[in-house]
Amino acid sequence: MIFGGKLFESTTVFHCVEAFFLFSFAAGAVYIVNDLIDIKKDKLHPIKKTRPITSGQITILQAIITAVILGTVSILFSFLLNVRFGSIVLLYFMINIIYSKFLKEVAIVDVFCVSLFFLLRVLAGSVVTGVELSHWIIFMVVLLALFLGFNKRRQEIVLLSETAKSHRGVLKEYHTYFIDQMSAIVTSSIVVVYMLYTVDARTVKVFGTSHLIYTIPFVYYGIFRYLYILHDKCQGEGDPTRILFLDRKTQVNIILWLITCIAVIYFGL
């Protein structure tokens, strides 16, 4: 909504909030199914073994019922909200099941699947808000997802050490050196693509200003801060959500980036 110029359109915001909750229900159902499939392997993980299903706080039957309810509600109401949105949610379900059963054990393909799931979220947002996606946001979403995915695999290897292979079979195909090389390539691509986006002729024409370049430092800092936390502080287990909630500097950086983007796009500052 921000980059589509529709942040202050109440109807669009309302539909976007609806879509957010419906996709969250869908994601919740998918994660429950994934935890049920991986329950034996997750018992070997120092963090995942404390999850409700793995630790036994929630029974398998309760988990199945919850997944069915969330899945049914999300798919049904997604189609009622928007047929194309519902189709994307259904596709998200189907690909996730295939991923959980097969593709998550195929090196590199597993990370590309994660990128696809992020892209489907953005496509869903585009359909609901009526914002046409530019090739720039597609590039950025895929690159950021690859960045997060590869680094999450790296942290799993570091955290689990010798037991990594028994927890997730695909980890035997990865090595920290290889992942660091992939991460370096993706990191460079992220900052270059974002810089090109801010100075692109279409971007300047649409927003009527070239001042979006002032948001570049926040992107650099966010990437570097994330890598610093993973490599030097060894926090977050590679989970971007945990890092977002635990790291105050990352939170401040994202808020400042958003404020700057809104100021430039909507107020021409």
Structural description of this entry:
The chain is mostly helical. The protein has two domains: 1-115, Tetracycline Repressor, domain 2 (Orthogonal Bundle), CATH 1.10.357.140; 134-269. 76% of the residues lie in helices and 0% in strands. The chain contains 13 helices and no strands. The longest helix has 28 residues, at 10-37. The mean pLDDT is 88.
Residue runs with pLDDT of under 50 for 5 or more positions: none
Q: Quick one: how many beta strands? A: 0
Helical content class: over 70%
User: Which percent band covers the strand fraction?
Assistant: under 5%
Spell the H/E element sequence. Answer: HHHHHHHHHHHHH
In DSSP terms, counting alpha (H) and pi (I) runs of 4 or more, how many helices?
13
Offer a quick outline of the entry:
The protein is mostly helical. The chain has helices at residues 10-37, 39-42, 52-55, 60-81, 83-101, 109-129, 135-160, 164-167, 176-199, 201-207, 216-233, 240-246, 248-267. It has two domains: 1-115, UbiA prenyltransferase (Tetracycline Repressor, domain 2, Orthogonal Bundle), CATH 1.10.357; 134-269.
Key traits:
269 residues; Tetracycline Repressor, domain 2; 2 domains; 13 helices; globular
Topology:
Layout: H1 10-37, H2 39-42, H3 52-55, H4 60-81, H5 83-101, H6 109-129, H7 135-160, H8 164-167, H9 176-199, H10 201-207, H11 216-233, H12 240-246, H13 248-267
Helix pairs in contact: 1-4, 1-5, 1-6, 4-5, 5-6, 6-7, 7-9, 9-11, 11-13
